[in-house]
Amino acid sequence: MGTFNKTGAAVFILLFFISGFNQLTADEYERERNRMVRTQISSRGISDRATLDAMRNVPRHLYVPDVQRRYAYQDRPLPIGYGQTISQPFIVAFMTEIIEPGPDSKILEIGAGSGYQAAVLAEIVDQVYTIEIIRPLGEQARQKLNAQYDNVYVKIADGYHGWEEHAPFDAIVVTAAAEYIPPPLVEQLREGGKMIIPVGSPFQMQQLMLVEKGEDGRISTRSLMPVRFVPFERAN
User: Fold this and answer.
1) Dihedral of CA 119/71/18/13: which sign?
2) Quick check: 103 and 88 in contact, CB under 8 A?
């Protein structure tokens, strides 16, 4: 699981203090985070201890723009720029729990966004590989994640193709809606692995799908719930 890079952590803390004086204190943010986990996540059925601990530990307010920080622990997605959003806390927790991450897991995330989902995963697993196609978001996510963790690797690229040189992955988390499940991602999932991905039109309600690869390589899919995610962007 992730460990703090001491030099990077100092930079991360500095960014927090210069981000603006009209913010809550660290203790107040922690209380808001604990309330979020209690009222939005555990009360709705999320019970995996590692997932709940990660949601309590990761400061979500540092992964949203300054103007959104007052809303960071509310039960809703928030805009992070470039037409993208950070998912609502319950969805982040649900997608984390469903892939059953363990301390030795190697996870691929498609759609780093602000870096929040990757940070939650980094609290639990050994290695997180995350891809973001929008360069400014990817660079911001890399800066924040590298300041906090030494087990997260960020790539700015088209996530459709995955990250083949580091495959196979124990699990894959896709945080943008695809019209179909990308075959390269299925190929990069190890036998016995799981992928969680929203599938459907970007302009309508989508279905959050669980894709499982059996030990014999066979693929099964299961619809979990209706969701609404931003579109899965591709390189031109």
Assistant:
1) negative
2) no
Give every residue of the chain whose pLDDT is below 50, as ranges: 11, 14, 16-22
Nearest alpha carbon to residue 77 among 207, 175, 197, 144: 175
CATH number of domain containing 101 = 3.40.50.150
The CA-atom distances, in angstroms, between 181 and each of 150, 167, 187, 236 are: 30, 17, 11, 19
Instruction: Report how many domains make up the chain.
Output: 1
Residue range 89-126, pLDDT digits in tens: 999 999 999 999 999 999 999 999 999 999 999 999 99
- Percentages helix, strand, coil for the chain (3-state, rounded to 5) are 40, 25, 35
Write down the H helix ranges in the chain.
Answer: 6-18, 26-36, 49-57, 89-98, 116-122, 135-148, 183-187
Q: Determine how many CB atoms are found less than 10 A away from the CB of residue 14.
A: 11
CA angle 13, 102, 51 (to 5 degrees): 55
For residue 235, being part of any structural domain is answered with no
Write down the catalytic residue from 19, 43, 47, 87: 87
pLDDT tens digit sequence for 184-208: 999 999 999 999 999 999 778 999 9
| Parent domain of 32 | 6-227
Q: Cα angle at 69 between 66 and 70, to 5 degrees?
A: 130
**Does 87 participate in catalysis according to the annotation?**
yes
